[in-house]
Amino acid sequence: MIKNRSPYDLDGVPHLKVAIPLGLQHILAMFVSNITPIIIVAGVLGISPTEKTLLIQGSMLVAGINTLIQAYTIGPVGARLPIVVGTSFAFVPIAISIGTKYGFEGVLGAALIGGLFEAFLGLIIKKIRKYFPPLVTGVVVLSIGLSLLPVGIQNFAGGIGSKDFGSLENLFIGFVVLVTVIFFKQFTKGTTSTGAIFIGTIVGFLVAMFMGKVNLSTIGEASIFSLPKPFMYGFTFHLDAIMAMVLMFIVSAVETVGDMSGVTMGGAGRETTDRELSGGILADGLGSALATLFSVLPTTSFSQNTGIIAMTGIMSRFVVGTGAMFLIIGAFIPKIGAIFTVVPPSVIGGSLVMVFAMISISGIQLITKEPLKGRNAVILAVSLGLGYGLGNVPDALVAFPESIRLIFGGSGIVVSGSIAVLLNIILPQDEKEEVVLTKSQKA
């Protein structure tokens, strides 16, 4: 029997010489985003550098395990899609708020309950899927892409907080990567086309090294072997913290629905199935519960990797699984993780700008599956207008309680998704839509 070697097929198992660079480009796109949330929270809560290192190891291990579960499943858990999982930025503000009041144990306790709640949503997703038509999931995917574009530009310019932010050197490196990605994607075929992001990153890294922008001492200082440490902290449970965290997990579930829709639409030109949605959200919730055992913040699907799939069309679960193995190995060999940390932000940003824009395009493809007029136009306009607006001007909610501001003022995705779901429920169908729905129901 001839083995399917196509990287474009869900069950394709390409040769390692193809799978490794394609898997690495996924890890390069998500590595910093995966470890940064725990670094931020640990810094605010005064966690020691030694414990912080162990938390970073835990973040890598959990991200790798949860990515494998999404790709290859355990029973009903997992989407059986090339979903890359990592620590979610969305939980950082609320984790800091809870941690300041109840300590890191309070954060972990609330996250454990929240993860189990999201897993419950996965069990009933078939009953509530009617509230997530292509228009709604498209709004979420588009909002994800739009909200991430500033992050791409920030990296492109050198990374927020860097002394040379916006310098000509950083912008030059970013443009070198972007032009390289475009060239190999559009003007070559085969492995060089599918691996355009990886090639662009390598070229940008070499240019950055030549310009003196790479500090390799971090690799030398990292230890050769170290075991991740579970149960570093205990759990405490507080009702207000749990309620706030549960709301964030509902948002996380909506984001996961959006990411899965982005993967299947961008990579396969179809909507997600009930089985994929259920398994994906189950894995998202249970994976976050697993993360708390390693004292790690909740995990979720990573939108930048959805963008890579939408851009390259590479749907092979084996490719994503190969990348996940690097995360798991890196959790035990800090030197491997250190290699990824020395890549300058401008190198990463050069490819992320295009990747994040591709996420937005996947959202537009979902939205335009139906005519944009009447009811659909109203839902899109209001959800994007308020979502993107409040996401950029969070101070507009200054009169609301802190918990509300944390949830709805920190992310346009939350507002856009919530409003799209609400309006889809309460606004009556246009006459033509009702006729179409009636005919499809009879069929």
From TrEMBL:
Membrane-spanning intervals of the chain: 27-47, 81-99, 106-125, 131-153, 165-184, 196-216, 237-257, 318-340, 346-367, 379-400, 406-427
Keyword DNA damage (UniProt): no
Keyword Transport: yes
Record keywords, A-Z: Cell membrane, Membrane, Transmembrane, Transmembrane helix, Transport
Membrane topology: Multi-pass membrane protein
GO MF terms held by the record: xanthine transmembrane transporter activity
Compartments where located: Cell membrane
Any one cellular-component term (Gene Ontology): plasma membrane
Protein family according to the UniProt entry: Belongs to the nucleobase:cation symporter-2 (NCS2) (TC 2.A.40) family.
Name of the featured protein: Nucleobase:cation symporter-2, NCS2 family
